[in-house]
Amino acid sequence: MKKNYFDNIDSTQVLAKSMAKQGIKNEIFIAKEQNAGIGRNGHSWFSNIGGLYFSYITNVFNNIYTLTLAVAINQILREKYQIETKIKWPNDILLNNKKIAGIICEQVNNLIVVGIGINTNFESLNLEELSDIATTILSETGINIDNEKLLDEIMQRVDELNDEKEILKMFRENMAFLGEKRYVSQIKQEAIILGINDNGYLIVNSNDKKNIIVGGTI
Ligand code: BTN
After folding, report:
1. What are φ and ψ of residue 57, in 5° steps?
2. Which of 51, 54, 88 is closest to 70 using CA atoms?
3. Which of 6, 41, 53, 154 for a ligand 1 pocket mutation test, highest count of atoms within 8 Å of Cβ?
4. What is the pLDDT of residue 87?
5. What tens digit of pLDDT does each residue of 134-155 get?
6. pLDDT tens digits, 18-56
7. Is 188 exposed, middle or buried (0-12, 13-18, 19+ CB in 10 A)?
8. Number of other CB atoms surrounding residue 151 within 10 Å
9. CA of 153 to the centre of ligand 1 (A)
């Protein structure tokens, strides 16, 4: 993939989507800092200098692609950096129950634009009012990460993860809040988190019934 670097940009995701509209693919857009980073569900993404922010355009994806991305990031942080992250369905990466990375996948024509933000090398103090729900790798572990190396490791792992059964298994083994009661946005009530089915949908127990959840957050 061709890499494009920016010191400062509004959003690599917005840029990559406009490139995808022109049919450009297999390119990565990497920023040191974003002024208007975007997250899922209309949220903004705090993009302080020190973090890793990138978007790429691909035509190689499948139904469980977002799960694959979460598994890849989780595996790399655990294996290469001994950081004990967990995956919050559908695709947030948590450390000590707070978010340290987010993934967004958006379709543009026949292409997928993937955006990944990882809170690596800045202090969580900078997250201000987000500090109850989000943190950074530096604040939690004291580890300084080589963002460029981490990016390459993640991209390579995404390429290598091809076995759907194995990806689902890894997701299940690393899932946060299993057996715990959480507020499930799609059904607007608390439910016990049981796991995911083979489509990657969430299985919960609410009102003593099994419920399949296809979207939203927990
Ligand atoms: C989320 O958890 O809501 C997804 C966050 C995605 C953030 C990344 S940072 C790089 C790319 N550019 C953006 O504006 N957003 C994504």
Report:
1. -115, 130
2. 88
3. 53
4. 98
5. 999 999 999 999 999 999 999 9
6. 999 999 999 999 999 999 999 998 899 999 999 999 999
7. exposed
8. 20
9. 19
